[in-house]
Amino acid sequence: SVCDAYDAMTSKRAYRPALSHSRALQEIERAAGKQFGPEEARALGSLPLETFQGIRGHPHSGPDPLFSEVDWRRRRTETGPGLVG
């Protein structure tokens, strides 16, 4: 998913340094419609930076809050500004 890809890109690996937030979003935007769904890529890009900063490095239980936020924004785009079903 697009969230997994963002996490992988912005995480340091033994074989490469982590990408910056803005560089990762550029890569996701470039791959929208090919590797990632365009709606999910747009939803991820529309999240404020604070959302990403608040998630990284904090253990949590239950569903990943970034996945939940992206899914909510995608469904809102599909259904309009009313209630999300």
Biggest beta sheet summary: none
Binned, the helix content reads: 55-70%
Radius of gyration: 13 Å
Instruction: Give the rounded overall mean pLDDT.
Output: 77
DSSP strand content:
under 5%
Q: Give the number of DSSP strands.
A: 0
Query: Which structural class do the helices and strands define?
Result: mainly alpha
Order of helices and strands: HHHHH
Count up the helices: 5
| pLDDT < 50 stretches | 58-62
CA(first)-CA(last) distance: 21 Å
Q: What does the overall shape look like?
A: globular
What does this structure look like?
There is one protein chain. With 85 residues, the chain is mainly α. It has 5 helices and no strands. It has helices spanning 2-10, 21-31, 38-46, 49-55, 65-79. Helix 1 runs antiparallel to helix 2 (21-31), helix 2 (21-31) packs antiparallel against helix 3 and helix 3 (38-46) crosses helix 5. The longest helix has 15 residues, at 65-79. Mean pLDDT is 77; it is low at 58-62.
